[in-house]
Records
---
Amino acid sequence: GQQLNQSPQSMFIQEGEDVSMNCTSSSIFNTWLWYKQDPGEGPVLLIALYKAGELTSNGRLTAQFGITRKDSFLNISASIPSDVGIYFCAGVGWGGADGLTFGKGTHLIIQP
Amino acid sequence: GAGVSQSPSNKVTEKGKDVELRCDPISGHTALYWYRQSLGQGLEFLIYFQGNSAPDKSGLPSDRFSAERTGGSVSTLTIQRTQQEDSAVYLCASSPWGSGGRTGELFFGEGSRLTVL
């Protein structure tokens, strides 16, 4: 099946720093999505991208759908303590489960 | 509430026992997914229901795992003869979107944490 390579696996940053994470694949995807999971909760959708090259912002979050359709990145500006959690990328391509594939997640840890 | 509801939130069982995990999706959502998440790990796809279509069971790890969805709404994930490696958080998600369109926009429940002793 299709696989997503999400990096970095974890990030230790200082409050106020900007954060960047990305997902890449050898396969083409039609949709890219970014989710955030707080401890003890289920993932929540942050941003959905539907067109190659699309750049979308949601507050301090910015995500882009790569022009090759094989990658996406998520940036968080001026991180705050509540940004802590696991960020998952997901892509919709072809295949089972409606073509939906999740990355393995990026653990974001903010040091005081 | 209006979100995806899962029960129980926590389940501790002994090795070899059967367990049932329940998911109440958001009303009207046609798609329902089950995922498994081991401690600190990613989301492992288990099974996907879409309307009246045959479910996609390709992610079920063994024949000890099964799931059904009654009346296109509530779903139950059953694990028979539980093993210690089954310990994980089992997440349910639903979506109002079918194939195409806004596929991938899922609403997750808080999960059922299963511990097998």
Note: Chain A has a mean pLDDT of 92.
---
Amino acid sequence: KNEVEQSPQNLTAQEGEFITINCSYSVGISALHWLQQHPGGGIVSLFMLSSGKKKHGRLIATINIQEKHSSLHITASHPRDSAVYICAVSPYSGGGADGLTFGKGTHLIIQP
Amino acid sequence: DVKVTQSSRYLVKRTGEKVFLECVQDMDHENMFWYRQDPGLGLRLIYFSYDVKMKEKGDIPEGYSVSREKKERFSLILESASTNQTSMYLCASSRTGTGGLAKNIQYFGAGTRLSVL
């Protein structure tokens, strides 16, 4: 079973700061996901990646398959970025039917 | 847009009651999942289904069962609710594909916060 570790668990920063959240996993995967959860519960997918780097607005996700490590960066952070960020991995499988394995999440607070 | 709808946002039940949590998705996805989320533990997979009437145990199936009679609906059943089943329950769905990684994207419902007293 894959072990997914995230760090830090909690992060408080000032508006405008560059934010980095890290994720490592123990067993090879088919894909890694970064998810965002706002207060109230709803989870949305930010990125899914299997190699390299992806960018969407102020968010950047990178993955190093050899080192089994991924990072999520937020540039020019804003209070609306305050949320729980969750790393999750998809196992090697045939059709995407397997459930994800999740990290415990990083609770990010951006202060104005 | 994909929509995954969970029937209740908040639910309060008594110990020993039989509890049904319903989830419906509108994108004709083959795969559906039930997770629970607890502080300090993150999300954990309870059961999943890759086809109608098919089900597979996840990491923590004890005390739960599921039903998938129609492709769009996946129900989680607590046969006899206990206080340690107080939690946030999240349903998700994904499609099955033979190519590309898009099949791995899961779409989540808003969650049901269940309290068992």
Note: The first strand of chain A starts at residue 4 and ends at 7.
---
Amino acid sequence: SQQGEEDPQALSIQEGENATMNCSYKTSINNLQWYRQNSGRGLVHLILIRSNEREKHSGRLRVTLDTSKKSSSLLITASRAADTASYFCATDAGYGGSQGNLIFGKGTKLSVKP
Amino acid sequence: DVKVTQSSRYLVKRTGEKVFLECVQDMDHENMFWYRQDPGLGLRLIYFSYDVKMKEKGDIPEGYSVSREKKERFSLILESASTNQTSMYLCASSWRTEYNEQFFGPGTRLTVL
């Protein structure tokens, strides 16, 4: 069952530009997380934002959450070629949350050209 | 550093073979998960376990089984591999808390011929 849907599916930018990816979801959540996946590898956790938070920063990453619109955005500032990867949002299942189930979107493929 | 390891990075098997994929984590996590990832379909949960000997079906459990005899180890079993099980398999683990992050292994790319 799909919960988060990322937009756009693919994004190509030049090094130094900012990259913005969006995620929409359907049901109420406890938290929303963003992950990164380099080609052919496992996912790496980037940032978690709780349902009562509106914005969070971590280095060059900025995440916003709008629970009224059921949407989140991930902004990567001053992008680098090494940021080239797929980015996934994930929401907790909203039930049995203590068990830690997450539902992942299909991802945004970011390409940063040097 | 949390480490999640998977037994193989690449695996090629024949239709009908029994396939074992093993996952080991070293952080004493309660939760362990098996996903498969296919182009255009994202990550889909096959099975998860929140304790030793406990297992719960995910979204696509058909054709798979799991085993968790020890807390650090979670095995995915394909009883009789089929070509439509060719995929990338990802294992993950996490603490059993409300605000958890999942730690992923490097993945196993399985090809069934």
Note: Chain B touches chain A at residues 4, 31, 33, 35, 40-43, 45, 48, 50, 59, 88, 90, 92, 94-107, 109 (CB under 8 Å).
---
Amino acid sequence: ETGVTQTPRHLVMGMTNKKSLKCEQHLGHNAMYWYKQSAKKPLELMFVYNFKEQTENNSVPSRFSPECPNSSHLFLHLHTLQPEDSALYLCASSLTQSGTGDTELFFGSGTQLSVL
Amino acid sequence: QQQVKQSPQSLIVQKGGISIINCAYENTAFDYFPWYQQFPGKGPALLIAIRPDVSEKKEGRFTISFNKSAKQFSLHIMDSQPGDSATYFCAAKDDYKLSFGAGTTVTVRA
């Protein structure tokens, strides 16, 4: 596999469930990101990991918990979500963290999350 | 606070026509301005980018025009094709991160 792979593609969960989103990149990049995409809104940066260290937490509620065990894998653990958390969650990677140089982000296809 | 304002929200163009998407910003620390293209069911992908020391950059049918004094930049899609139907996001980078516009959905009618 090449590029950035996200699983699952679709997820429906109740407000009391616990689930995890997985992201894997095969590009040899050092930075990984979680973005939230809602209709008619800018892409919303949630978390940034650079060399496995979390470098940004964009005031995200604690019901979202990221994990980055190595430079190639990123998880987003979800628990007690709200219906307004329904959105497309995108994982991205870059060679260096955005903000340094002309950094191109490579996105996965996203997980479409519906919270009932 | 939205750092990059993008318009229009959507547009429809006939095949062969020109699509124009506009973005404006306030932060003069922005030093890199990429455009990302997103097809349904896919993540965004870098389309073309410009730095503020250049007023125009062209790649194939896609052109970025940049007006530093007005703090505005735009994407022009020439000879629009049905395969160009997608959502386009402008973005701007400072030392810390990339800020995205809200996106423009372009529909090219055959």
Note: The mean pLDDT of chain B is 95.
